[in-house]
Amino acid sequence: MEGSLSVLQRHPGLSVAAFSLVFRAVHKLLRALPLPKGVCRDEFRVWKWRNLSVSLVHSMLTGPWAVTCVLLSPEMLDNMYSSYTPLSYLLICTSTGYFVQDAGDIILTGHARGSWEFLLHHALVIWCFLYTLFTRHYVAGAVVALFVEVNSVFLHTRLLLKLAGAQSSRLYGLNRLINLFTYVLFRLSAQAYLTWYILRNYSWLDHAGYFLSSMMLMNIMILVYFYRLLRADFLPRGKGHLAHNGMQHGSSKKFLSD
User: Fold this and answer.
1) Residue 180: which domain range?
2) pTM, full prediction
3) What is the DSSP string of 188-220?
4) Cα 32 from chain centre
5) Listed GO cellular component terms (predicted)?
6) 63 phi and psi angles, rounded to 5 deg
7) Distance (Å, rounded) from C-alpha 72 to C-alpha 65?
């Protein structure tokens, strides 16, 4: 592992590019899987299904990986500036490669306008992660930030089930409860801890102003989406409203819907 880390640290840009190609290969492999009937209605739904499927693979890999890194080296929670391990550095290389690939997929397929929220999020993450890889500072902070991917497993599953028209299924009902629980535990709590850490150590952290402003912007996005999630899954407003939402979801070219 030490030898592999040395190679990654010498060429972080090439390492990110390599992992980006790996996730592109995953995208190609997933194209061979059959699509639900409801997804095949139009080209946008097909693209969205495949894009979310790759995102789900990334979340299933990096979420547990991030938690494992902290369990093996809990000191990273106290020193998120300079503490890291070979396993955690490899995690950030892998995840950065995914975000680069996903941003490229959104832009090159012509869906940037309807996916601007995702692109803004990806731009913030990519810049912060590249900084950690080239400077080897805040690697532990990036690992804690990837705790959100535990929730993303259920968040992406939710969107896939909606695309397949399975909102009334038991699986969707169970997933929405787990999604809510993990949203609070792994997304909101991780963001709150990172924000608190930066504020507490603001006086001596390098580029603390940039990281704090980026964190605040992400906090706003996460809270807005949390409200939209609660409104859609736990505050129903009648069958007419649900039917309207279903039609809207099917015809909209917007990636991030309720």
Assistant:
1) 2-251
2) 0.90
3) IHHHHHHHHHHHHTTTTSTTHHHHHHHHHHHHH
4) 24
5) plasma membrane
6) -60, -60
7) 11
